[in-house]
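TODO from last week: model Putative copper export protein.
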Amino acid sequence: MAAEVVHFLSLSVPAAIGLTIAFLAIPEARGGVVSQNVRRLALPTALAVAVWAAAQFVLSAAVSDLVVALLLAAGLVVLRTRASRPVAAAVTATAVVGAVIPLLPATVGSLDSLARSVLTVVHVVAATLWVGGLVVLGAAGMLGRRARGEEAAAGRDWAQVWERFSVVALYAVGGLIISGMWLAWTHVGTPAQLLTTAYGRYLAVKLVLVVALLGAGAYNMRVLMPRIRLARRDGDTRSVVRLTVEHFPVVVVAEAVVGVAILAVVPFLRGSARAEAGWPGAGPFDATVFASGAALVALVALALWAGTRQARFAPRGRGQYHSHGRVR
């Protein structure tokens, strides 16, 4: 169990470090401070990735995993010495490739296997970027809370990071919902099997944790982000710093803990509830399933778009966050 969690983090954390430096944070050449905090995580992460890969290679002789880990470690070392956005993007791409390679089938035997492979890849990539982002930004945010003398710059930079990561998380959530519902359907025949089978009970625990994580994400999107936008619009630097540097990282650290707890449950999901209950396997991937999936994609996309649109348009004159630290 622990090995699978560590392996996932050995890919998701480098991916998020690269993502933050390359795409989320203001470049250091333009006065960005978040990138500096994130780069402080690069060297210990590189060391951990290299040690973990070497240990796994000794145990399993997985050459591809070792190559990916060494590339990640080298890229992270470079990032510690200089804030290169191309190198950061390459680190993220390498980590994603490393997560995807074990999921690719040697051959595509049927439409069912193709659909399963594609949706599994979507599920893993979305989880990699989302959970990795929570861990990295939570750690960097806590480091940033201890910095003094750059509050205004930090508030501006973190506001951009939270705004952009919210978009990444939104797409990740959409991918997880769509792929997760398909994968759950293939493994669980009825809601009752969530309680009557071992697989179902572990899946139920995972779903509860995912719902908690979604709730925290909704709080970020619907409450914190509108307050940050209002404070920035009003030029209220103190409130921007309070929200982005002091409050938001604490919420994200809590989310990261829940995310790691979800990872700890995943190794227990072996087999399927259908098999444990003596049920036949899920039906084939036919036109009906495709139509249902397309409708689900459209529904999820519409729900996420509506939620984002409502969060962006906070009421004026009420609910504004002022420097006193309260809403009025």
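Done. The two ends are 47 Å apart (CA to CA).
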